Amino acid sequence: MALTFAGCELDLGRQLLTRDGETVGIEPQALRILVQLIDSRDRVVTKNELLDAVWGDRFVSESALTTQIKALRKALGDTGRDQQIVKTVHGRGYMFVAPVEEDDGSDGSSEPERANPVIAVLPFKNLSPNPAQSHVSEGITHDIVTALSKHRWLKVLTRAVTDRYAEDRDAFSRLRDELGVDYVVDGSVRRAGDRLRVTVSLTDAAEGAGTWAERYDRQVEDLFAVQDEITEVIVANIEPEVGYAERQRVSRRTRSNLRAWDLYHLGVAHFFRFTAEDNREAQRLLAESRELDSSFGDAHAWWAYATILGMVYWDTEADSESLDAALSATQQALELDQHNAVYHALRGRVQLARREYNSALLENERAIELNPTFAAAYCGLGDSLCYEGRYDEAIAQFERAVTMGTHDPQRWAFLSYGALALLFAERFDEAIEWAERASTIPNCQYWTTAHRVVGLAKLGRAADAEAAAAGLLAECPGFSIQYARDKLFYLKRPEQLDLYIGGLRLAGVPER
Length: 512
Hints:
Layout: E1 2-5, E2 8-11, E3 16-19, E4 22-23, H1 28-39, E5 45-46, H2 47-55, H3 62-76, E6 86-89, E7 93-96, E8 101-103, E9 118-121, E10 125-126, H4 134-149, E11 155-156, H5 159-162, H6 171-179, E12 183-192, E13 195-204, E14 209-219, H7 223-251, H8 260-271, H9 276-292, H10 297-313, H11 320-336, H12 341-353, H13 357-370, H14 375-387, H15 391-404, H16 411-424, H17 428-439, H18 446-458, H19 462-475, H20 481-487, H21 494-506
Parallel strand pairs: 9-11, 9-12, 10-12
Antiparallel strand pairs: 1-2, 1-8, 2-3, 3-4, 5-7, 6-7, 12-13, 13-14
């Protein structure tokens, strides 16, 4: 999307600023300030908001902000005296005052795209007997805001905005009406002695309906460690819940004149149903989304992932052309936003399929560095380590993914890939246990059953292995030794493939 104002044009997709048709050099911090001001151009943006949005947890003085505002005005051809574009509101902050025209590249015949979901985190209430414990609730609130902000498809309001709604009985409706908030997170913290209880809920602001709620009880030995753990789990659960709510919202809309955002969410909704037919539809919808909006990184990255999953589970051909196209799509996404953890993790998924394990390892490590609450990245890291033969390290990452991703729609996959690592480590009893846990989750796929077959066969439980193999063939009628060889194309260590194929053969799986 391109934004035009006062002789300037800002290309959001390419993060490129031009003035009078000429490219303008601008520092990254100044550019982020510009985007933040334009996004909130109907109101004054406080200095604290800008400091949080641009520098996050880093401590910088207001002089750093003033310097970047000055640099921004220079890039835009504005001045502190004229203030025709960025106005200083003394004692409060800054406001973008120039008229803005938006161009999304369409002919205007279809309905406007919906912006990324806006989330407000209200200050958690301190319910502790000792009012002095308010620092705990303050810390958890701040950490949740910070961690949610790392999910770059979400727009999270800063504490400077939400704090003023803390004691308002109509906070949810006011946040919705005044700031366009879609979801509200609120909760409470109670500490008594060495016990800590945190409650949290997620509410759909448009409907006023609760979307998710949970309570966490912990024994406090190291307060900061417990606070970090609870924050990680809360944020790892909130993000997929918002994703699910958004997919449900889009699915209820008319299917005519769908835009890139709608097509993307519909595609992801089909993706998470985990069937051959739904995977084909996911690939189609995501391909259409990325064609409609070439600057939509999510569509590029998720199309690549859907394509790879189609290769591993269903009928997408794992040829070099398709693998190259998938890698190219993730590169397009990263060129649009190199700090997006999801893009790095999905690029890692493509690299695993290409048997580029070390590259996948680096991509998943980068994803976790960018977003420590992203459960799927820990699973991707586990796979990368597993295929390199580093089994103990891999299993630790799968355990982290399973613990963190209790609401993740791919949790069955975390358990299933963990079971595969346990097979390769020859920890067959544990592999069977993980496979059985995965099989209780809806939409779990046939490879989980195959892992159980191999584990049972390797333990010498012939009757159980044969019965499980019969169940596997009922679940996936075309499954055979040759089918398994073809679908395990992403393994390059001969001993891993030999172990797996040997287990299937012991269980009586047909050769073809």
